[in-house]
């Protein structure tokens, strides 16, 4: 994209961003917290949402790995698993990742009942929802970043960091 992109292209991208966000909120993937994050630093630091979510994905991917490994050890440390799951739930809640948060809560319920098989099944849903969130937000970030860079007349690569992050997250699901 060149710096000669016109206002109508920027407006089109901004409308697409709004549609994507509204769709994700309406389907329950995200909640109002995401919108608060989006609005909190729009003027002072337009890439705040992108960096916040990138940090969340990195943290969540690491937690998913640790929790998965802990579920395989014998004997189970249910209190430690619950603590790690609570951290993942809190992080998910902080960014408005509603479906991830709900899947983590279901896993915690199984852990509290010391039902490791049910917890493993529920934790697979956490992985599915985290992966789904990443895929669903990818177009949002594309539009978000593109609109920002076009309005600044900047032509640098838009997704290098997110693509790298996406690949890191993907390795946890294969």
Any overview of this molecule?
Helices cover 78% and strands 0% of the residues. It is mostly helical and 174 residues long. The longest helix is centred in the last third of the chain and has 37 residues.
Helix content: over 70%
Q: Which regions contain 5 or more consecutive residues with pLDDT less than 50?
A: 145-163
- Count of helix runs: 7
Structural class: mainly alpha
Rounded mean pLDDT is 77
Tell me what portion of residues adopts beta-strand conformation.
Answer: under 5%
- What gyration radius follows from the Cα positions, in whole Å? 18 Å
Query: For the report, how would you describe the main beta sheet?
Result: none
The N- to C-terminal Cα distance equals 34 Å
Report the count of strand segments: 0
Order of helices and strands: HHHHHHH
Structural shape: elongated
Question: What's the assembly state of these chains?
Answer: single chain
Mind sketching the topology for me?
Layout: H1 7-26, H2 32-40, H3 48-72, H4 78-95, H5 98-112, H6 116-152, H7 160-171
Tag the structure with descriptive keywords.
174 residues, mainly alpha, 7 helices
Quick overview:
By secondary structure, the protein is an all-alpha fold.
């Amino acid at each position: 994209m060149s710096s000669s992109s016109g206002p109508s292209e920027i407006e089109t991208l901004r409308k697409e961003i709004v549609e994507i966000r509204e769709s994700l909120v309406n389907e329950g993937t995200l909640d109002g917290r995401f919108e608060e994050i989006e609005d909190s630093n729009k003027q002072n630091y337009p890439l705040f949402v992108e960096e916040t979510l990138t940090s969340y994905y990195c943290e969540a991917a690491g937690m998913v790995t640790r929790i998965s490994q802990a579920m395989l050890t014998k004997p189970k440390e249910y209190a430690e698993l619950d603590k790690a799951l609570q951290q993942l739930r809190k992080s998910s809640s902080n960014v408005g990742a509603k479906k991830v948060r709900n899947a983590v809560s279901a896993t915690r319920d199984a852990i509290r009942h010391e039902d490791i098989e049910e917890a493993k099944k529920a934790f697979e849903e956490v992985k599915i929802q985290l992966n789904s969130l990443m895929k669903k937000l990818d177009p949002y970030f594309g539009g978000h970043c593109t609109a920002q860079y076009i309005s600044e007349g900047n032509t640098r690569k838009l997704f290098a960091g997110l693509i790298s992050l996406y690949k890191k997250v993907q390795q946890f699901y294969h």
